[in-house]
């Protein structure tokens, strides 16, 4: 059975065309690498991206990168045994060129990747056609910018931000004010002895490391532990006597469009409807509530 002429896919190429840096170098790779019997643009780019990804996991990338040319050349020689040493080295140079080009998108001052860029540039100085390759990419970059397509600044080697306890507490508190605290207070569901302290109760809950660790778990796609929040509301309703509304009334007010969550307004510390790991954690909540009774 003959396949349709247009029955083909270019998943890698299509995926990379949303990256303006790839668009800027793709034609240059075709001219200086692919047409010389080398790899296609998406293969080169994929290797460059993976190279940079590997540098994120070493303590001294500016030193490690000095060994990359030899490493890449060796691996390419194993994979493409029909290619001679000169062809393999040229492909390695093009991969390093793309990696360096990606790094140069960072506009931080001073650039934390400058030593890595400098070390790769020293290796690229040995590439026979580095000058025409560089000039070709510059021309393509100018043409793309003239069309309104420019490279977005980025630092691909930046370490991902790890949210601190304080940042998590502040973030979750903001969400709780919007989703839980304000609606309950505005509906008049908080008993008088706790009305002024309702928000402070939640702040103290989030100030406790044990409870905050539980609260940081994403439940129901809320970016906080909604199951735990509902469990705490259950404690406030049944044990703390902070909230006057019934489970059903509270559930309908907080989730008017469904689905229902009333089963999670539980005081149990076991079972699928409880986010508490033990009675101890629930006791912490009860003690915090008790401290805020006026």
Describe the 3D structure:
It is a single chain. It contains 14 helices and no strands. The longest helix is centred in the middle third of the chain and has 22 residues. It starts with 10 loop residues before the first helix and ends with a helix. With about 290 residues, the chain is mostly helical.
Please render the helix and strand layout as text:
Layout (H helix, E strand, L loop, with lengths): L10 H6 L3 H13 L8 H15 L5 H4 L3 H12 L5 H19 L10 H11 L5 H17 L18 H22 L11 H10 L1 H7 L10 H13 L8 H8 L24 H13 L3
Helix pairs in contact: 2-3, 2-6, 2-8, 3-6, 5-6, 6-7, 9-10, 9-11
Identify the notable features of this structure and list them briefly:
single chain, mainly alpha, 294 residues
Rg over alpha carbons: 29 Å
Low-confidence stretches: 1-8
What share of the residues does DSSP label as strand, in percent? Answer: under 5%
Pairing-aware structural class of the strands and helices?
mainly alpha
Our count of helices gives 14
Helix content: 55-70%
